[in-house]
Amino acid sequence: MKLIIFDCDSTLSSIEGIDELARAKGPEVFAEVEALTNAAMNGEVPLDQVFARRLDIIRPDQATCSTIGQLYIDTVEPTAVSTLNTLREKGWTIAILSGGFKRLIEPLAEFLGIERIEAVPLELDSEGKYLRFDNSYPTTYNGGKPEIIQQLKQEFSPDTVVMVGDGVSDLETKPEVDCFIGYGGYTPRPKVQEGSDHFIYKLDELLALV
Known about the structure:
The protein is of the alpha/beta class. The chain has nine helices and eight strands. It has a single domain (2-208), classed as 3-Layer(aba) Sandwich (Rossmann fold). Helices cover 43% and strands 20% of the residues. The strands form two sheets. Strands 3-2-1-6-7-8 form a six-stranded parallel beta sheet, with helices on both faces. A two-stranded antiparallel sheet has the order 4-5. It is globular. The two termini are 13 Å apart.
């Protein structure tokens, strides 16, 4: 089988879910969290340093999570649906691998027909208030995405593995995959562009590459 793995935020959708959770809490919270996100995605600060800090600042609730879940669908990459359908026709198995939160990404995954989501568990209590996130989950720290890909390779024994993403944490997977395709449709990052096997600005451009 052939396995193609997509990052979610700023790749399958234009938004960064963590930033949108922060935006819902007001401009001051948003500015603080956005700066942390950008520093991590650009490789300036280790991911694990910013993850807990962002959640402690935001403390997302169920209503906000539901709103952002819908926003992922509303801001889906324009060529994503047709591209994924063509990939399925070509025999590819599709998965999402994200440093975002599984609870937020699930609606988009369902919309896109993607069953396998590897993303960070976010726990709320019975009243929908924030409890915790799983800080042991691999995508909360640098080097975590390659770990997940190793697990997927053991599980599926694919003949070919392709990764598509926009961030430095995605680029870290390059040694574990047959082809790394950088995506710059929303946030082209020089480090990712330099390190990619291929670099695209629309998802349907990858069809000529796989």
